[in-house]
Design a protein that fits this description.
This protein is mainly α and about 60 residues long. It has one domain. The protein has 4 helices and no strands. It comes from Tetraodon nigroviridis (Spotted green pufferfish).
Length: about 60
C-alpha cells in the first residue's frame, strides 16, 4: 500500500533509488552515532541508559 502511494507521488525510479540507499544510510547513521558518543562526553549519553547510570554514581 505504501509502495503504491510512493509510486504515484514520487515515481518508481526514485523509490528504487531510495531502497538501494537505505542500507548505506543506516550504516553511516550508526557510524555517526558511535563517533558522536566517542568524541563527546560519553557520560552525557550513557546517563540515559538505566543499567550504566547506576555504575557511575558520584559519592559525595
Amino acid at each position: 500500500m505504501v509502495t503504491k502511494i510512493l509510486n504515484k507521488v514520487v515515481g518508481t525510479k526514485y523509490v528504487a533509488v531510495v531502497r538501494a540507499w537505505v542500507p548505506n544510510m543506516v550504516a553511516w547513521g550508526t557510524v555517526g552515532g558511535v563517533a558522536l558518543v566517542h568524541f563527546t562526553d560519553w557520560r552525557l549519553f550513557l546517563d540515559y541508559v538505566p543499567y550504566v547510570k547506576g555504575k557511575f554514581v558520584k559519592d559525595e
